[in-house]
Amino acid sequence: MRNPWRATVLGSQVAELLRRPGRFAATGLSLLIAAFVVFGTVMAQQIITATVVENFRGTPEAVSLVVEPGGGEDIGEDRLREIRETPGVTEAVGRLDGGAPLDGSAVERYLALSADPGTGALAEVRLIEGAYPSGPGRLAVDTRAAREYDLAPGSSLTLLRPAPDGEITRRVTVRVSGIVRGTATNDTEPTGYAPGPRLGKLLGTSGYSRVDIRTGTAASAPADQARLTERIRQAVPGARVRSGDEVRQEEARQAVAEAKDTLELVNVFLAVAVGAAVLVATSTFRIVFARRVRQLALLRAIGATPRRLAAALVAEGAVVGLLAGATGVPTAWGCGLLVPSVAGRFGHDLSVPSHLPPAEAVLTVLGTGLLAVLAVLAPSLTASRVSPLQALRSAASGEGPANGTGRTLLGLLCAAGAALLAWQQYTGLPQPGDTDYDRFAALTVVVLSGGLAFLALIALGPRLVRPVLSAVAVPLRRTGAAGRLAVAGVGGAPGRAASVSVVVALGVCLVGSTLTCLASLNAYERYRQAVEAPADFRLYARDGGTLDRSLAADLASRPGLVDVTAFRTAEVVESTRGATVSDLDLTAVRSGVGLTARTGSLDRLGPAHVVVDADHAHRLGVRAGDRVTLTFEGRPVRLTVAATLPGAGPYGGDFFVPPADLTRMGADAAPTAVTANASEDGARGRIRAQRAITGTLTGPQRGDGRVIAEDPAGQGGEPDDLRTMATTVIMVLGLTVLVAVVGVATTASLTVVERTREFGLLRALGLGGAAVHRMVTVECALYGVLGGVLGLALALPYSWLVVRVAETSAPFSVPAGQLAAVLTVLVLVTAAAGMVPALRASRTSPTVAVAGSD
Fold this sequence. Notes:
single chain, alpha+beta, globular, six-stranded mixed β-barrel, 56% helix, seven-stranded mixed beta sheet, 27 helices, 15% strand
């Protein structure tokens, strides 16, 4: 038999939904954002996957079969000829790869070599300037080789090749016929291209490591492909023959696997954004149900049980969630289709997703409904317990007790657990030289500790609002009545303020942690550059001896070179182990990229002082101010530690002393190495500097010198993959902040409805509409301030711990300017989120103060 009370309760909720759709639009908006975020991430993954596959796939689409030799032997020209003559084969090209050093410069340079037809459906490169090589002694080079080696059509290159007659090398001069653009997989190093036979003669090889085959349409059927595969296996015994689709799928899997870390990282922060949406929806449902307390009490008065009432409220939330999901999915799909075209306008080539993933779309809609159910559970249980006597009261407040004893105890337990886990990781941080430290497990524990800390913030939030507010809102109390009323309004409802501010704090914590960790990693990259590439060029003797004493002065007089520095290294004994001591000036490495000290200061390096690298400092247990003893040629030298480094020293140096001290120790006065920088940035400046160095190394003592060209672009600064990942993470985290801003807007809207009589009373007492507008706007801004302060309070200590766990040599760097900018923008955005509710509040009539409830 049909239950009349169930029908009455459900009917009442449906009628309320139709009568007051604005209230449910407020709850649905946060859920719509969650659905948009989830399916937007699905679209982002599809775009990233399609782009990676398109850009990093090396096998041309026209390749039908790929033949690889078996038994370790290459496929010779005779076998390639047999493949071409096989019925069903339209075109076949041989692939081979190699490389050779370049002659004509004191600087070591290398050119990779790859065989390619250059034209036709099987070509992997595209000609952009000049002509593709068609005769002997010709090469086409890719854009990277042209840029780094200053090449153009008509330029000459001399390759160093092994000589068959027993000589060490032979020189082969080739002319650049054209510039090509290769696939992304071939653009990892400077590369030259030529047809297979020409390149084989140049490399001195007679076989191919792979043959790509294109078949005609007549051989496209599976049965014809199978017969053709068998004929090729007969022509090339032991060969492995695979379809082009299989090879391309393997390349796609490898390419996607390389982007796996980024995709997984996006998923992690996606979960955070969804969690933020649940918190916002929960808070909004609680306010909505509190506003409807009289209606719910009337249902209780006519016989509705708490169980039926809670079930009806949950069903109501599920309907709102499903509607929000059904709206968010197509919205995200449409935006995903627009992303590649918008990115193309900014020079980024992205691939358009091929289709709408139906399974993911359905799961997202259903998942949004489930999120709504989870969000409405707690508020519905609270609302269903309303007393029937509430039907006799004129209004109800959405603000309950600030906190309960159980909630406080739960918060303290979570905080204690977070502190215990953080202390455990702090006491077990890796030391320089540790190689068996499980960083993944340590980071997992740090994330768990951070999760407990955030749960503690949720539980203790209402008790933290007023103390934090009293500290940050001092200036507002001096700005007039609107400021004082705004502070009182936020402080008067600490539970509501905490529920909104905690979501803001989550976004600020994650964004702030990302920026801080990125700044620290950038500082570490700069340190690593100073260690691995202190200068553009390094000259040293091949036999480990010394260089000409006048070499540095001669190089300094050459145009194109700056910052020429000569230094010495010597072998010493520390305790019972060998070590290297150097008089390199650590404060004068590459301009703009300096070393930092973990303890002490590099500026304190003076007579009888030494700078120690991290490994030796840890093994000796010394820091700035301690004493160490080095033994040079049997004579002990006692030195005071001026500073310790966070990592290794430049050029493998372990100890660094002033030049006068190294001379007193008995080291030869002649330099063992000379460094120099190009006076101009870019490839042309480096090439000009290389020529200056080549022209200087002419004497017999100098002719033995060897030059290594360091690559600062590849060594320092912010790497492309790190920048891309950081940008991706910050964009996804921005969605969390977006959800938080939506929460501020919805909370402000519902609060304005709830406090209509209050605003009317303020207007009746003489407060102008502009002052009411400022009051509500400032209240919303205070949500941003509270969230920013609480978020940064969590972000900074956990960022420090993450940096120490991830890379013990990385200095902790706080980007104060960026964090201040984030906090400022957040306050402005949350204030802007309250503009519309504030406008409604400012239009409240004073007569409302004496009217009945809304």
